[in-house]
Structures are given as structure tokens and as C-alpha cells.
């Protein structure tokens, strides 16, 4: 879709973000983290299978995920409390939901992650699904592309080098990425919008160009709390009780003064994000919370949203870091309708 065909607010947004710090002044910092030159933790985060209830699917996904870890993902999971467990919980749900769609419609499901750096989740997903779930990852950082292909070309997984707002069904074809002409069953925004601009209606509109009418839209974002003191309390908890296990104090301070300082000015409140989602979708719910980080799922097809949530395990995070009772309906779904599935333990599965 050309800029001239976009609604005025979205076109103005595009004019602003084409020169956003994420693509200019901060680009070298993201490149260094993606290559592993900086930002690497003292030690790698180890998955806690107890938090996942020793679920067989989640642990199978975790094994594939561990084999594909990139420097950026290693940095991320050491920065956001229990995000490694969440990536495996979420990846297992994408796997289960994708196979349900394949059985229903007789076609491969498709998942697009914008902001997944080197596409660790996407590559692991195509592996565990034996290529029957096709994935796309995008990033404007060439070092992430290099990491994506470091172990060869993943079957069924594709990479678009460029910012999310350049991705459309047309540009994918123009760059030689085919098979997504009918758009995606799931589109995942992973801490991306907050790197460009504080508005949310406009980037959702741009990302939604790639989503099927009955698709699932997932937002993973750091939220600006309405109470600044509560926000700071959760930040201190994250830094002191989690990040300090993996990073030196100097590393934490340096990131806070550069990337996090910029990102905080671009964060939206939960109310603002909910309002923006409500302008695009019929229903939405919170499915994960870690301090100031939230995952929200939305769709125009409530039945699909319910099915996706039912593919999720309960949140794999200690209660002290989770500040919401989940799943939590934001709008469009009858209270009590959403439930998480129970772990299915296989005694043959282990990490």
C-alpha cells in the first residue's frame, strides 16, 4: 500500500518514523547487541521447567529455542524477568494453534513476528512444526539477518531486512518472499512500536495490513504506568531482583541512559494501548504480565481469540513479578470465557 493511499494520520506517522532514532542514532547500539559485541549477560538465563509445569509441548519448543539462541535474544531474556519461559509458553501456543488451523482449513498456518530480532521464536516454531507453520521475521538490523541465517536457511522461515512499516504483501513479493499473499494468521508485535513513536493507532494500522480478517494480533510492550511511583517500583524490582543476576551494574546503568531512556518516552499507557486496539479489533485480553511488560492478544473473530488463549499454559512466572490476574479481558469477550490449558506432562520429556 503506497503512502498516498493511507489515511492522513498514518501517512504523517510514517513521515515521522522513517528518521526515528531506532533507525538513526540508536541503530549502532542495536547492531552491537545483535552481533554480540555489547550487551551480553555474564551468564545465560536457564529455563525453569517447573514454571512451565513440565509441559511436554513447551519443553519441546524450549529445546528447539535453545538451539537457535542469538546474541540479541540472550540479551533480551536476561533483561525482562521470566521472558524466556514466556517465549517458550507462547511458542508452544503458536505451535498448537497453528496445527489446529491446519486441521480446520487444510493449509499451513502463517505467523509474522515483527521485533523478534534474529527470529529465534519463529525459527524454533517452523522446526517443531516440521515446516507446516510458515513464519516471517523482520528487522532493520543486518546483524539480526546474519544471525537468522547463521546455521543455514531455515525451512519455512523467512526474513525481511527493513522496518516493520515497510512490510506489506506486495513488498514481500518484490523481495522474493512468497507464500504469504493471503496474509498471516498471527501477527506479533514484540517491543517494536515503542522504539519509534508514542502513538499506537497508526503502527497497528500498518502492521494490520499483513493480518487476515480473522487473524490474531499480539502486542508485547512495556507499558507506562499511570502511577509513576508504581512504574519505578517495578523497574527497581526488575533491575535489582532479576537483571542484576546477569548484568553488571555498569551495563544496567548504560542501557538505562540510552535505549531505555529513549524507549520510556515512546511508551503508551495500558489505557492508551487498549483504546488503540479497540479502534481496530472487536476483542482483546491480557495474557501475560511481568512488571511493566504486558502481552495483549486481540482479534475481530472472538472464537479464534478464545481458541488461541486456550492454547496457552498459565503464565510461567513467579507471582511477585506478575501484577495482573490472568487472563484479563479488556473488551469484547464475556467474563469467564477465557481459560488457559493445563500442562500435559510427558515423563519422557526433560531439559
Structure summarized in a few sentences:
This protein has 351 residues and is an alpha/beta fold. It contains 14 helices and eight strands. The protein has one domain: Vaccinia Virus protein VP39 (Rossmann fold).
Write the layout of secondary structure elements.
Blueprint: H1 8-17, H2 27-35, H3 56-66, H4 71-77, H5 83-105, E1 109-114, H6 120-128, E2 133-139, H7 142-148, E3 157-161, H8 169-174, E4 184-190, H9 201-208, E5 211-222, H10 228-241, H11 249-257, H12 259-265, H13 270-278, E6 283-290, E7 293-299, H14 302-310, E8 328-331
Parallel strand pairs: 1-2, 1-4, 2-3, 4-5
Antiparallel strand pairs: 5-7, 6-7, 6-8
Descriptive account of the structure:
- It is a single chain.
- The chain has 351 residues and is α/β, with parallel strands linked by helices.
- It has one domain (3-331): Rossmann fold (3-Layer(aba) Sandwich), CATH 3.40.50.150.
- It has 14 helices and 8 strands.
- It has helices at 8-17, 27-35, 56-66, 71-77, 83-105, 120-128, 142-148, 169-174, 201-208, 228-241, 249-257, 259-265, 270-278, 302-310, and strands spanning 109-114, 133-139, 157-161, 184-190, 211-222, 283-290, 293-299, 328-331.
- Strands 3-2-1-4-5-7-6-8 form an 8-stranded mixed beta sheet, with helices on both faces.
- The protein is globular.
- The N and C termini lie far apart (45 Å).
- The mean pLDDT is 93.
Amino acid at each position: 500500500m503506497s503512502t498516498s493511499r493511507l489515511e492522513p494520520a498514518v501517512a504523517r506517522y510514517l513521515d515521522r518514523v522513517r528518521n526515528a532514532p531506532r533507525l538513526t542514532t540508536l541503530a549502532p547500539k542495536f547492531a552491537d547487541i545483535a552481533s554480540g559485541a555489547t550487551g551480553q549477560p555474564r551468564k545465560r538465563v536457564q529455563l525453569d521447567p517447573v514454571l512451565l509445569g513440565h509441559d511436554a509441548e513447551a519443553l519441546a519448543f524450549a529445546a528447539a529455542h535453545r538451539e537457535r539462541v542469538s546474541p540479541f535474544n540472550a540479551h533480551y531474556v536476561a533483561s525482562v524477568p521470566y521472558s524466556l519461559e514466556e517465549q517458550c509458553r507462547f511458542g508452544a501456543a503458536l505451535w498448537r494453534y497453528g496445527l489446529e488451523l491446519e486441521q480446520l482449513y487444510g493449509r499451513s498456518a502463517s505467523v509474522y513476528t515483527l521485533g523478534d530480532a534474529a527470529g529465534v521464536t519463529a525459527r524454533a516454531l517452523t522446526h517443531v512444526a516440521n515446516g507446516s507453520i510458515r513464519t516471517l521475521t523482520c528487522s532493520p538490523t543486518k546483524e539480526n539477518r546474519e544471525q537468522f541465517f547463521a546455521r543455514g536457511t531455515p525451512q519455512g522461515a523467512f526474513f525481511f531486512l527493513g522496518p516493520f512499516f515497510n512490510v506489506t504483501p506486495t513488498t514481500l513479493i518484490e523481495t522474493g518472499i512468497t507464500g504469504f499473499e493471503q496474509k498471516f494468521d498471527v501477527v506479533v508485535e514484540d517491543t517494536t512500536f515503542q522504539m519509534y513513536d508514542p502513538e499506537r493507532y497508526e503502527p497497528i494500522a500498518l502492521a494490520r495490513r499483513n493480518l487476515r480478517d480473522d487473524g490474531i494480533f499480539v502486542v508485547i510492550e512495556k507499558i507506562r504506568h499511570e502511577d509513576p511511583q508504581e512504574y519505578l517500583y517495578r523497574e527497581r524490582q526488575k533491575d535489582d531482583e532479576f537483571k542484576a543476576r546477569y548484568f553488571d551494574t555498569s551495563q544496567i546503568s548504560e542501557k538505562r541512559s540510552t535505549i531505555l531512556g529513549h524507549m520510556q518516552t515512546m511508551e503508551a499507557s495500558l489505557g492508551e494501548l487498549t483504546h488503540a486496539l479497540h479502534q481496530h479489533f472487536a476483542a482483546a485480553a491480557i495474557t501475560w504480565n511481568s512488571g511493566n511488560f504486558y502481552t495483549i492478544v486481540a482479534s475481530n473473530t472472538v472464537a479464534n481469540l478464545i481458541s488461541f488463549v486456550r492454547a496457552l499454559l498459565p503464565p510461567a512466572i513467579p507471582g511477585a513479578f506478575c501484577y495482573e490476574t490472568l487472563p484479563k479481558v479488556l473488551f469484547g469477550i464475556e467474563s469467564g470465557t477465557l481459560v488457559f490449558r493445563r500442562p500435559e506432562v510427558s515423563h519422557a520429556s526433560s531439559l
